[in-house]
Inverse folding.
């Protein structure tokens, strides 16, 4: 949906729309071949266009068009310009239709190359042709008007903004005069006048849409001239008048807009004919689509008028209403419903009060079918219709729909379809109200699955699909529960759509899409309905009339169906299901075959479940037979090969104990390693088999597998290297004793050594893990490790990038080597080598990594070796030698083993807290905390005693406490060790909640939060109690503590947080702006953190808390203060950090809970002030704009976009003063680039071409030097998209 915006596509705002060239006619091919090799000459081109042969004229114009579109440096002299423009206008009346069409195409790009006088000449010439000069032959006048109108429209669309005044000057008055003309001129007649006015209206509409503001002095006259056209007896002028009024309404003054809306509203109400009422209602709807929120204040007056036409009571007397089911004019009702849809999509804020009534009307008329009587829920599903291609995001064109049923004059199906679209618009723009939709809307939509008109049925499916998407975005537990309760009815009503062969295939495709969407929201929603769905699945796969699209959709559904449900549910119908899938495996179309093989991979999980006496053996053989043909075939598509290999690997790995052909399959997979195309899936498949708990005998293929996998480590492809390292690690771990494996270990060690580097930490992690597995499989390999891997490992250890899994793998290798204790490569060698590293200047991060390595060696050595090392480190600390590194080592050793029995260690660490160097005091504090991890019961009382007795050590000792709690709270053993000590820790921490030192309070908050993980039911309520403390510092501390209690995994604390979270979030609106600033900031950070890690906890509270968040997005004058620094005055904004937190929170909520936010409200309350705020706030606002443009609410963003463009313009055009420092200049440049990235994303958004203000913005702001920056940003964004694609 969001394709990268290339520099080529940016030409839309540089040279006008690019149109594709006409296909060359066969008769001109020879001329094209000879002519294409000649350099372009404008004089020869003009000569060519004067030839008598139309093919030659065509070729001349073709060359001209190519030159105009591709040659950026194309330039015309004044004489050439005049001659070309004059000749082009002449060619508009050429006898050849192809020549005329191509001449019109040339006009667009030519408008960007010619000067003012030529623009005037072209426009005046076309205008004369349009308005029917007397000298033109009457038979050719109609064609001339068509050509002139088409040419003028193309010229207007393509012309740069600078030509706007000239075009308006040449066209506005003549067009306006012709629209006002009441009687035909001499030599003309009434029919020709109507035709002239129709074409004039067409051009005027284009002129208003492109250069509306330049016509400001004539807006009133244009409005008066266009309005009568709404009553034209012909439909086309009415449509053009509606279009023109829509464009005009975007630019007229408030007074004229007020007059226009009231006029149309009164006419719609007073019209005596249904067709007149339809026109006025359509005009109101189109104006709303064009002006958006500007229509909002008028809805109170307009809505009752439109509602009356939905009810359709006014014109009943005009029809034969003898039928008891008659309910008025269907087309008028359809137009009224479409007008309501415009209100919903374009005025989401102002229409809110009418939404309940609109939903009520939609639900009434979505079942409006007076010419049909339903006999039961299961009957009345007959309908044959031709329809458009169906897609969830596409609308249907009324003009392309054929209705072939016997009620071909029945237009009530359009009413039902309009209701469905209206409900879809409401759901899409108001996802925050998802709970309300499940009360009335969802059940009615499900009941309409039995709709007899297939076009309407597709729209109903689309609407319910949008409801499912909104449910997923909102994450509302209530909505999800309501959806689950509807599943039985849902399945009952959708089943007939799956098996009825008389139905149009697109209905069946849409039904399977809907089932897939349901499972994306509620994964196990169809539990208990497997047997009911299997016939529809099998019918879609086996029936000869099923298209590839239907089969692909069925297979996609089956795959997610199996993956999201209990495998045992498929046992009873496995034969029927699998036979349909196997039938698809034998299809000719490679996409279907690949999809079917992926479904076969999912079937493996069903066969692995052996409950209820299910015997898989016979089914396993059938599954393997289905896959085997594709596994051994050489002349098939790569995608099929990969899917077959993946499936075969799964079959052997999980069902190899009952498959007789396991050795055969292993041989084939091993052979696939030799093929460059299939090696990657083969590596993954063999790795999966090696990891199987069934211990599959791989002896016959281990030799070749080890050789090939080791050789793959030299490949350039990162994917193959990654897969090979994973597979090697699995093979060595599980088959390390096999002679074939041992024989290749030395080669593997040599190959993996190249990957032990900081260039790719993940590959380094896998390589180190493999080295550890090799040492564990064969201790003799330690010598090879010493020679090949150890030097690289030591070099990696000194890298500042080393962290996470790579560090853990390196420590694991050191531990394994110490356990082996090979002579010359045991504890002493490793210990001495690591200590030598400290002689060089190491960064703090590297020093800590080395300390952890030393600790691992000491812990896995003998007790004597460990104690000796600890004593040496204590001695270093007391003597002042390598104090920092020694403290780090003591802490890391104490974390891994109990050192509390040594009084010297405890005394050493406590004494170091009084050191003069802050860095050493901090290291001692952390070491004490780690020491406490080794033995809580001994070290913790000493910590508490020191906190109470040494005021000068309080912060450092609280840091020790935090280190201990943070490490223990994440393990079951640690939680058990902390439980008895809580009564000693909590009073101390709560006492320090009101500490005057902010650093101490932050550390206390983290301690309290981590302790909440230990005993949530006791500690979380105590945190809530302290929200009522009189001290703002205490309140801020407990709020921050709650943030640290949130973890990114399921935990017992979640239930406790759910019960108290509302009380914490209420502090955002319950605190004083100045005195409670710290508390508010803490609440915003808490909300952001919870939304990011546990969105389900916060989604129910958003409706109440979002208004307070929006309040914090605005600057507060009372938080701004003036600071005098020498001769300078500086304004300090104390609320800036809080505003940043509010915007960060909104950005997180858009990702985590997009359906719970009203986008219109967000834009008014947050984005509008944010885009004009401080540079930091602007950066965050730009990110929010980008996020909205990429999301499903982009339509609402485009509705509300025009008011935001001035702020973006101000940011982009801001320049620095000459005396500003480099830091400010760089900051301004960063802000401009950020704004340009937002503009770039907006330019990619579907529907942006309908926002005329954005088009004007691009043509006026993104010019000159700004355009160069914009194109650089576009190139960078395209490069990032390519990079993401390659990584994906």
């Amino acid at each position: 949906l969001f394709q990268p915006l290339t520099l080529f596509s940016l030409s839309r705002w540089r040279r006008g729309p690019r149109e594709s060239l006409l296909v060359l006619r066969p008769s001109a091919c020879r001329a094209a071949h000879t002519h294409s090799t000649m350099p372009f000459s404008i004089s020869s081109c003009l000569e060519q266009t004067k030839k008598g042969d139309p093919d030659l004229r065509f070729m001349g114009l073709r060359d001209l068009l190519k030159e105009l579109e591709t040659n950026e440096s194309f330039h015309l002299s004044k004489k050439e310009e005049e001659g070309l423009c004059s000749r082009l206008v002449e060619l508009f009346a050429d006898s050849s239709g192809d020549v005329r069409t191509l001449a019109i195409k040339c006009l667009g790009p030519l408008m960007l190359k010619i000067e003012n006088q030529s623009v005037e000449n072209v426009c005046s010439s076309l205008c004369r042709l349009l308005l029917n000069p007397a000298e033109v032959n009457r038979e050719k006048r109609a064609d001339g008007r068509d050509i002139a109108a088409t040419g003028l429209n193309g010229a207007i669309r393509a012309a740069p903004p600078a030509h706007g005044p000239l075009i308006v000057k040449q066209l506005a008055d003549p067009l306006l005069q012709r629209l006002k003309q009441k009687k035909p001129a001499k030599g003309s007649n009434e029919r020709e006048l109507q035709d002239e006015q129709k074409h004039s209206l067409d051009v005027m509409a284009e002129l208003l849409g492109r250069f509306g503001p330049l016509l400001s002095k004539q807006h009133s006259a244009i409005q008066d001239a266009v309005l009568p056209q709404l009553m034209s007896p012909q439909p086309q002028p009415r449509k053009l008048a509606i279009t023109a009024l829509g464009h005009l309404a975007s630019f007229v003054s408030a007074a004229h807009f007020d007059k226009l809306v009231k006029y149309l509203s009164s006419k719609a109400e007073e019209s005596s004919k249904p067709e007149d009422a339809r026109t006025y209602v359509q005009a109101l709807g189109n104006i709303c689509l064009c002006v958006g929120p500007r229509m909002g204040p008028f809805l109170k007056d307009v809505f009752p008028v439109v509602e009356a036409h939905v009810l359709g009571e006014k014109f009943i007397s005009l029809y034969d209403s003898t039928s008891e089911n008659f309910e008025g004019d269907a087309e008028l009702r359809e137009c009224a419903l479409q007008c309501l849809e415009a209100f919903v999509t374009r005025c989401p804020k102002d229409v809110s009060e009418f939404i309940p009534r609109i939903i009520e009307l939609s639900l009434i008329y979505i079942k409006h079918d007076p010419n049909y009587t339903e006999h039961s829920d299961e009957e009345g599903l007959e309908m044959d219709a031709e329809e458009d291609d169906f897609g969830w995001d596409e609308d249907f064109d009324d003009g392309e729909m054929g209705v072939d049923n016997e009620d071909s004059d029945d237009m009530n199906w359009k009413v039902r379809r309009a209701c469905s679209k209206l409900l879809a618009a409401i759901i899409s723009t108001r996802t925050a109200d998802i709970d309300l939709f499940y009360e009335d809307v969802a059940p009615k939509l499900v009941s309409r699955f039995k709709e007899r008109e297939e076009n309407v049925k597709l729209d109903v499916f689309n609407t319910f699909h949008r409801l499912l998407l909104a449910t997923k975005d909102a994450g509302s537990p209530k909505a999800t529960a309501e959806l689950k309760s509807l599943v039985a009815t849902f399945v009952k009503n959708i089943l007939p759509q799956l098996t009825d062969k008389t139905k149009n295939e697109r209905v069946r495709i849409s039904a399977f899409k809907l089932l897939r969407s349901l499972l994306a929201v509620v994964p196990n929603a169809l539990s208990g309905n497997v047997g009911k769905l299997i016939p529809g699945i099998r019918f879609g796969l086996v029936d000869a009339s099923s298209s590839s699209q239907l089969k692909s959709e069925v297979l996609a559904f089956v795959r997610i169906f199996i993956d999201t449900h209990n495998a045992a549910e498929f046992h009873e119908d496995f034969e029927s299901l699998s036979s349909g899938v196997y039938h698809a495996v034998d299809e000719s179309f490679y996409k279907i075959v690949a999809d079917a093989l992926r479904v076969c991979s999912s079937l493996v999980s069903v066969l692995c479940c052996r409950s209820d006496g299910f015997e898989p053996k016979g089914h396993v053989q059938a599954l393997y037979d289905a896959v085997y043909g594709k596994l051994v075939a050489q002349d098939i598509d790569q995608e099929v090969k990969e899917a077959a290999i993946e499936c075969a690997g799964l079959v052997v790995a999980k069902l190899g104990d009952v498959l007789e052909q396991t050795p055969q399959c292993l041989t084939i997979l091993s052979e696939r390693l030799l093929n460059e195309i299939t090696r990657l899936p083969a590596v993954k498949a063999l790795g999966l088999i090696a990891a199987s708990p069934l211990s599959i005998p791989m002896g016959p293929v281990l030799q070749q597998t080890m050789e090939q996998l080791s050789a793959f480590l030299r490949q350039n492809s990162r994917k193959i290297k990654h897969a090979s390292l994973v597979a090697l690690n699995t093979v060595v771990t599980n088959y390390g004793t096999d002679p074939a494996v041992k024989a290749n270990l030395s080669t593997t060690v040599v190959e993996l050594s190249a990957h032990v580097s900081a260039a790719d930490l993940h590959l380094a992690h896998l390589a180190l893990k493999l080295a550890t597995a090799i040492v564990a499989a064969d201790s003799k390999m330690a010598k090879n490790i010493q020679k090949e891997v150890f030097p690289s490992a030591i070099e990696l250890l000194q890298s500042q990038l080393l962290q996470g899994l790579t560090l853990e793998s390196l420590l694991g290798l050191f531990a394994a080597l110490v356990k082996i204790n090979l002579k010359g490569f045991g504890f002493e060698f490793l210990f001495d080598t690591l200590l030598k590293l400290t002689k060089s200047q190491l960064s703090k991060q590297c020093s800590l990594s080395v300390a952890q390595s030393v600790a691992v060696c000491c812990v896995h050595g003998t007790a004597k070796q460990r104690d000796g090392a600890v004593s040496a480190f204590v001695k270093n600390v007391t003597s002042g030698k390598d104090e920092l590194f020694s403290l780090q080592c003591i802490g890391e050793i104490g974390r891994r083993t109990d050192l509390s029995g040594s009084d010297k260690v405890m005394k050493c660490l406590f004494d170091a807290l009084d050191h003069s160097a802050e860095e050493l005091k901090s290291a001692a504090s952390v070491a004490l905390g780690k020491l406490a991890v080794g033995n809580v019961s001994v070290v913790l009382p000493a910590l508490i005693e020191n906190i109470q007795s040494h005021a000068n050590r309080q912060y450092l000792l609280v840091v020790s406490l935090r280190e201990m709690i943070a490490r223990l709270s994440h393990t079951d053993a640690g939680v058990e060790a902390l439980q008895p000590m809580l009564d000693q820790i909590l009073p101390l921490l709560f006492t320090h909640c009101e500490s005057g030192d902010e650093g101490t309070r932050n550390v206390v908050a983290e301690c309290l939060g981590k302790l909440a993980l230990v005993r949530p039911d006791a500690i979380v309520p105590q945190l809530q109690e302290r929200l009522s403390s009189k001290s703002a510092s205490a309140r801020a501390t407990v709020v921050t503590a709650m943030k640290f209690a949130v973890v990114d995994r399921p935990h017992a604390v979640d239930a406790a947080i759910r019960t108290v979270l509302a009380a914490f979030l209420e502090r955002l609106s319950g605190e004083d702006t100045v005195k409670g600033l710290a508390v508010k900031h803490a609440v915003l950070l808490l909300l952001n953190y919870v939304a990011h890690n546990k969105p389900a906890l916060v989604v129910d509270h958003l409706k109440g808390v979002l208004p307070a968040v929006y309040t914090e997005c605005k600057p507060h004058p009372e938080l701004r203060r003036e600071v005098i620094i020498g001769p300078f005055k500086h304004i300090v904004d104390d609320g800036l950090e809080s505003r940043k937190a509010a915007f960060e929170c909104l950005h997180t909520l858009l990702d985590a809970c997009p359906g719970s936010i009203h986008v219109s409200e967000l834009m008014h309350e947050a984005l509008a002030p944010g885009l004009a705020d401080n540079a930091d706030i602007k950066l965050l606002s730009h990110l929010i704009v980008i996020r909205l443009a990429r999301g499903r609410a982009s339509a609402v963003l485009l509705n509300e976009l025009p008011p935001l463009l001035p702020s973006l313009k101000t940011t982009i055009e801001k320049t620095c003063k000459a005396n500003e420092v480099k830091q400010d200049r760089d900051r301004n440049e960063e802000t401009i680039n950020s704004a340009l990235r937002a503009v770039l994303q907006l330019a990619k958004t579907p529907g942006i071409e309908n926002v005329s203000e954005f088009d004007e913005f691009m043509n006026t702001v993104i010019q000159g030097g700004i355009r160069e920056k914009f194109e650089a940003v576009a190139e960078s964004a395209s490069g990032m998209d390519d990079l993401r694609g390659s990584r994906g």
Summary: Residues 1-37, 320-327, 375-408, 1282-1288 have pLDDT under 50 and may be disordered.
